């Protein structure tokens, strides 16, 4: 943990305010990988050979790289997999014409003119709504190394043009690259080797950017940064809903966005086109790809689980088919001090439908330009090299007892049938397990880069209550500083088991007046100042409006709960049993119960599975004993230290509220006969909203569509017919009703 230090970051807002946005958007810019002016004579000779490629997806060799939009569409339409699908559907008329319509609607038309215009427009917008946009400088340098470009602020001489090779030589070179000695690579992690001599970079790097998704701004910011730093612009997977934005959707399309339906599992033709469209980008390496592994914006401001694996699976298939030698995944964390759509997010969680993306809605949103949204901080994780990750995974599997891993599995390319046709044969067990581990690792690494803003600590302070929040509650600046130290400074060592990269964005010199003014200016719709200079929530008396305000505070508190989750489960188990002691065995039982209960609520170091022996349990228990929060009575009995009850309640209150919200959901009438999860969530939410109490934190949490969804998914995770009664029994046993009156209100 560290206090955020702006010296380690580039502030692109500050930089742009010192110069002209128009001149910046018209700066000299070229594609640093495939610009013909930059290619060596040898690579041009290789590219100009009209040699047929042995490719499952696209047996076509282009002379010019990168391909334009029309070439990519033609590539997909002529792919063997799509031809097979069309033949399979030959009983339906105009299948080929349908395919042309789908690919026309889906595909991007990336060009530099539109990118310049978008850069100019959003430079104006960003300069208006954000005080700072900080970019991690070291991460940009690393991406420069991946592309074999000259790093920022570095005198290291790196060749300006990478070597590109014909796919006809790929197999031979790939063999030598994988057998090359790892000792030739610089062992010093601080000195990055040139991509030209590293085993993974004989071909151009296939890079996939994987940002967190909390706001519409996520679609723009990475393209904006790539233009800023002269890095190849990515192609971005966007929902088809954005096609309703008219001219803006066309601008996004010309800046690299390709539009896909939210759901198309049952549409064989659409699935094949999507699959081929993604694969042809990965195989040819024309452009990096960008997509959101969560699948949708997270209204809760924490990771949406389970992750959506479809697009990642298509990318990995290219590696498993030996069509590429490596794939580089870069998890990215985009941290907002204030999210543009936080009001909409809170309303949507409480069942108010999302406004449809439209031109009229776009014009209405222009009013946000009058507001300040504080700071945005973009952090990049270390790249994940699929070749290395998969080889390491296979070795671990081989070393497991009773391993059935086949060393020679998948050496021969597989058939041309799309994955949706032969779903069971798409990935073998080893590959599917690797995909599951990899996808969870991605969201874990995203969460490791969390930035904790003052609003997070403020939300903790206001919501520090087991159930009901006092109507006229106010918080002093002094209390915020005390709570910040209790949550994140004093407990740094235990939080660092999850992440050593999280940072706190806090006013310099702990300036209380600066903190107060910042909270009042950025969150003017949330806070007001009382007569004694305390912060107070702007409660209106309207049930739904006040509930949305509390939900907004819950959202901002959510941003850091994954850092505390596992160690706090031990504290929570002791705290709810504060009237008596608890045995070691019972404490560990409750600890494992909470881990599985919140499997879809919080990101852990690994996804919880049955019979897992968590290696951190004893370490966390020892930590709380040393901190004197838990008293060790005898060899196997523990109890909470009531002298620190105030601090313990602050730390455990979010998790107790979530657990009680789950119990409230599970106590609804048994309506699990409905199989469709989306419909089931709406039924539960409708029942709970009729009893909504705007002062009751648990009632508001339990009415959240996301919490209901996660609670129901936990039932499915248990895979037993008695799961509901078992979970209800355990939660009731742990959390005894506070009072009959409160129970009646819930």
UniProtKB/TrEMBL annotation:
Membrane topology designation: Peripheral membrane protein
Q: What InterPro entries does this protein's entry cite?
A: GPAT/DHAPAT, GPAT/DHAPAT_C, GPAT/DHAPAT_LPLAT, Plipid/glycerol_acylTrfase
From the UniProt record, give one GO term of the biological process aspect: ether lipid biosynthetic process
Question: In what residue span(s) does the Phospholipid/glycerol acyltransferase domain sit?
Answer: 207-337
Q: Where in the cell is it found?
A: Endomembrane system
- Mention one GO molecular function: glycerol-3-phosphate O-acyltransferase activity
- First and last residue of the signal peptide: none
Q: Which UniProt keywords apply?
A: Acyltransferase, Membrane, Transferase
Quick one: a GO cellular component term? Answer: peroxisomal membrane
The protein's predominant localisation is membrane
The organism's place on the tree of life at top rank: Eukaryota
Q: Which family does it belong to?
A: Belongs to the GPAT/DAPAT family.
Q: Which named protein is this?
A: Phospholipid/glycerol acyltransferase domain-containing protein
Q: Which organism is it from?
A: Rotaria sordida
């Amino acid at each position: 943990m560290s206090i955020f230090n702006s010296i380690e970051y580039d502030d692109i807002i500050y930089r742009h305010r010192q110069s002209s946005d128009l001149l910046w958007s018209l700066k000299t810019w070229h594609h640093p990988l495939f610009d013909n002016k930059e290619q060596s004579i040898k690579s041009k000779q290789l590219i100009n050979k009209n040699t047929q490629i042995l490719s499952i997806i696209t047996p076509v060799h282009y002379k010019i790289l990168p391909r334009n939009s029309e070439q990519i569409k033609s590539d997909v339409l002529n792919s063997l997999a799509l031809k097979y699908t069309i033949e399979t559907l030959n009983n339906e008329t105009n299948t080929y014409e349908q395919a042309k319509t789908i690919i026309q609607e889906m595909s991007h038309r990336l060009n530099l003119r539109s990118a310049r215009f978008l850069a100019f427009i959003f430079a104006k917008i960003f300069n208006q709504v954000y005080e700072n946009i900080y970019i991690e400088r070291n991460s940009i340098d690393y991406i420069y190394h991946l592309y074999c470009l000259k790093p920022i602020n570095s005198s290291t001489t790196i060749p300006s043009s990478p070597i590109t090779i014909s796919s006809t030589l790929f197999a031979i070179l790939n063999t030598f690259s994988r057998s090359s000695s790892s000792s030739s690579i610089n062992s010093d992690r601080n000195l990055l080797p040139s991509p030209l001599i590293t085993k993974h970079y004989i071909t151009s790097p296939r890079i996939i950017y994987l940002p967190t998704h909390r706001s519409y701004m996520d679609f723009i910011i990475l393209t904006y940064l790539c233009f800023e730093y002269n890095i190849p612009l990515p192609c971005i997977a966007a929902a088809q809903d954005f096609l309703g934005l008219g001219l803006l959707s066309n601008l996004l399309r010309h800046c690299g966005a390709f539009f896909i339906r939210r759901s198309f599992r049952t549409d064989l033709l659409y699935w094949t086109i999507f699959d081929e469209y993604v694969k042809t980008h990965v195989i040819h390496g024309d452009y990096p790809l960008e997509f959101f592994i969560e699948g949708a914006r997270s209204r809760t401001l924490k990771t949406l689980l389970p992750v959506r694996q479809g697009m990642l699976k298509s990318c990995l298939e290219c590696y498993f088919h030996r069509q590429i030698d490596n794939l580089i995944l870069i998890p990215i964390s985009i941290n907002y001090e204030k999210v543009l759509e936080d009001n909409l997010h809170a309303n949507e969680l409480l069942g108010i439908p999302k406004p449809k993306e439209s031109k009229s809605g776009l014009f209405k949103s222009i009013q946000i330009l009058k507001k300040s949204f504080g700071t945005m901080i973009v952090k990049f994780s270390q790249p994940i090299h699929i070749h290395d990750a998969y080889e390491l995974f296979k070795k671990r599997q081989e070393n497991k007892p009773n391993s059935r891993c086949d060393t020679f599995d998948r050496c021969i390319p597989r058939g041309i049938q799309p994955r949706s046709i032969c779903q069971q044969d798409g990935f073998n067990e080893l590959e599917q397990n690797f995909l599951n581990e990899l996808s969870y690792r991605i969201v874990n690494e995203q969460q490791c880069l969390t930035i904790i803003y003052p609003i997070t600590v403020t939300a903790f302070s206001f919501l520090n209550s087991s159930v009901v929040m006092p109507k006229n509650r106010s918080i002093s600046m002094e209390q915020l500083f005390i709570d910040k130290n209790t949550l994140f400074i004093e407990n740094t060592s235990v939080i660092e088991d999850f992440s050593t990269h999280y940072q706190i964005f806090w006013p310099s010199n702990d300036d209380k007046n600066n903190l107060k003014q910042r909270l009042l200016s950025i969150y003017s719709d949330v806070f007001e100042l009382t007569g004694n200079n305390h912060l107070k929530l702007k409660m209106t008396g309207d049930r739904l409006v006040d509930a949305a305000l509390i939900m907004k505070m819950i959202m901002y508190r959510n941003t850091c709960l994954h850092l505390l989750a596992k160690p706090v489960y031990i504290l929570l188990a002791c705290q709810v049993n504060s009237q008596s002691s608890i045995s070691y065995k019972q404490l560990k039982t409750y600890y494992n119960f909470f881990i599985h209960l919140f499997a879809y609520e919080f990101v852990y170091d690994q996804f919880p599975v049955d019979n897992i022996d968590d290696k951190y349990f004893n370490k966390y228990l020892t930590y709380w004993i040393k901190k004197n929060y838990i008293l060790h009575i005898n060899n196997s009995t523990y109890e909470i230290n009531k002298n620190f009850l105030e601090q313990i309640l602050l730390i455990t209150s979010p998790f107790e509220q979530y657990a009680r919200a789950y119990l409230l959901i599970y106590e609804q009438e048994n309506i699990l006969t409905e199989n469709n999860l989306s419909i089931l969530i709406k039924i539960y939410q409708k029942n709970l909203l009729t009893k909504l109490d705007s002062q009751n934190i648990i009632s508001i949490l339990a009415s959240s569509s996301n919490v209901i969804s996660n609670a129901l998914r936990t039932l499915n995770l248990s895979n037993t017919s008695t799961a509901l009664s078992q979970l209800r029994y355990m939660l009731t046993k742990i959390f005894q009703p506070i009072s009959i009156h409160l129970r009646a209100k819930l």
